[in-house]
Each structure stands twice: as structure tokens, then as C-alpha cells.
């Protein structure tokens, strides 16, 4: 969870403290993630597994990564992480409803609370986030939720993730080409992007998939509630970002609502 939260901190650091542009951050992050995952598969003697994955999932991965980067041009770290997490979880809940899953009364209450928290977070006001940034991060969350749903049936998540990173990299490079006018290279920003791709994304996913078989579905979903909190703490400690009343209240509503949905579940696994 520290690795996942660090993605938000590293992206915000790169775009706030350096001159690196969002498209280049996206390209470097996906490329370094692909190379790191390929290196891990090579060490394991399973480099051929990178042929797994598919273009549909790679597209969702690219949309997530690009929207994530551009959203953090104007969002605080904690706000962005909370919007992302809320959108991911809402996407997966609504996908379950569409598939015929029934919610208990406590789950409906939690869902309403979480949606209310998201609405409150983006409402216009003195502490409101940038509308463009909020819309971008919500898009990133929906894309990541769809990516996660598409990957639930895979038997080799590391190999599939490597294949998807490889396929998504040319999409990101094409985006960089189209935004060449705004190209702003920066060595420190590039370092943050490499760390985000190779370490907190690539290695982070490998650690997560290694731990996942030892966690019950509800445990795995519940522990993810810590990610927005950790990201917000990172933004406060490393970037001097303020802890606003709006963020605190929205966090209580969103994380509490999602926790209610998870804890009242009838036992169907969340992945």
C-alpha cells in the first residue's frame, strides 16, 4: 500500500517541483514499469509470459496513467488519491450490480455515503479541487477499475501486467509526440517517473500479487482503504500540502462508505 500511495506522491512531486510535463511522466512511467516487469520475469525464467495481456486492457492502463498524470497538474496529492480510490471502488461496485449482485441495506447506505462524499469533495467552493483535475482523476479511476475487472480471470497477473505495460507504452509515446510543444525534460522529474514506473508500479504490483493469495477477499479490499490516507500524509509531509476540512470530511464519507460496502458483503470475492 505504501508503494501504491507513493505513486501519487511521486507524480505530484515531479509535476509540482520540477518542469517535467505530464505526457513525458506518463511515457517514462509506463516504459520503466514495462522494463522492470520484464527484468523480473527474466530473473524468474518466465520472460515468455510477457506475451500475456491484451490491447483492451492496455488501453485502459494507458487511459488511467495519462489521466492520472494530467490530473495531478492541479490536484493536491491526498485529494487526487481519494478521488482515484473512490472512482475505482464505485466502478467495481456498479459492475457487480450490473452483473446481478444484490446489496444489503448496510451496503446501500455505505454506497450512498461514498457517493455523497465524492460529490461533496468536488462541489464548488473555496477548498474545492480544480474541476479539470477532478474530472481527470475520476476518469483515471474508472479506467483503473475497468482494467482491474478485465484482469480478474488471469492466471498469471505479473505476466499479464508486463504485457499490458508493453502494449500501453507506444500509446504513451504517441501522446508525447502529440504534445511535443509542451515537452519539458527535467532530470529530477525523470527520476521520479522512473521510480513510479519501475519501483512503486512494477515492483509494487509484484509484491501485491505475491501477498494477495494469503489474504481473504475482504482483507485485500479493506487494506486498500489505507492508500488515500497514506498518500495524503505523504503530500503533507513531503510537499507541505494543507489538510483541509473538506478533505477530512470527504475522506470519512468515502472511505467509511466503501468500508461498509465491503464489510456487509455476502462473501463474493473482490479482486
TrEMBL record:
The chain crosses the membrane at residues 22-43, 55-73, 79-97, 109-126, 132-149, 161-183, 189-211, 223-240, 246-264. It is found in: Membrane. The keyword ATP-binding does not apply. GO terms for cellular component: membrane. It comes from Catalinimonas alkaloidigena. It comes from the Bacteria. Keywords: Membrane, Transmembrane, Transmembrane helix. The keyword Protease does not apply. It is a multi-pass membrane protein. This is Threonine/homoserine efflux transporter RhtA. Residues 1-122, 133-262 form the EamA domain.
Amino acid at each position: 500500500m505504501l508503494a501504491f500511495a507513493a505513486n501519487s506522491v511521486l507524480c505530484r512531486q515531479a509535476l509540482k517541483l520540477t518542469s517535467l510535463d505530464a505526457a513525458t511522466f506518463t511515457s517514462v512511467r509506463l516504459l520503466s514499469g514495462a522494463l522492470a516487469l520484464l527484468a523480473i520475469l527474466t530473473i524468474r525464467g518466465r520472460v515468455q509470459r510477457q506475451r500475456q495481456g491484451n490491447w483492451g486492457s492496455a488501453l485502459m492502463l494507458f487511459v488511467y496513467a495519462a489521466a492520472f498524470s494530467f490530473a495531478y497538474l492541479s490536484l493536491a496529492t491526498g485529494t487526487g488519491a481519494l478521488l482515484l480510490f473512490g472512482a475505482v471502488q464505485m466502478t467495481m461496485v456498479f459492475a457487480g450490480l450490473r452483473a446481478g449482485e444484490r446489496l444489503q441495506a448496510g451496503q446501500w447506505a455505505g454506497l450512498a455515503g461514498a457517493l455523497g462524499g465524492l460529490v461533496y469533495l468536488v462541489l464548488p467552493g473555496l477548498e474545492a479541487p480544480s474541476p479539470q483535475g477532478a474530472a481527470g482523476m475520476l476518469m483515471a479511476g474508472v479506467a483503473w477499475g475497468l482494467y482491474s475487472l478485465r484482469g480478474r480471470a488471469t492466471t498469471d497477473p505479473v505476466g499479464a501486467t508486463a504485457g499490458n505495460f508493453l502494449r500501453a507504452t507506444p500509446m504513451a509515446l504517441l501522446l508525447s509526440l502529440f504534445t511535443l510543444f509542451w515537452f519539458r525534460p527535467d532530470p529530477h522529474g525523470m527520476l521520479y517517473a522512473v521510480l513510479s514506473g519501475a519501483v512503486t508500479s512494477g515492483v509494487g504490483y509484484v509484491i501485491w500479487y505475491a501477498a494477495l493469495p494469503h489474504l481473504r477477499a475482504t482483507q485485500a479490499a479493506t487494506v486498500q482503504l489505507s492508500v488515500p490516507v497514506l498518500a495524503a500524509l505523504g503530500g503533507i509531509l513531503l510537499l507541505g500540502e494543507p489538510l483541509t476540512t473538506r478533505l477530512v470530511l470527504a475522506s470519512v464519507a468515502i472511505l467509511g462508505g466503501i468500508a461498509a460496502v465491503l464489510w456487509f458483503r455476502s462473501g463474493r470475492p473482490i479482486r
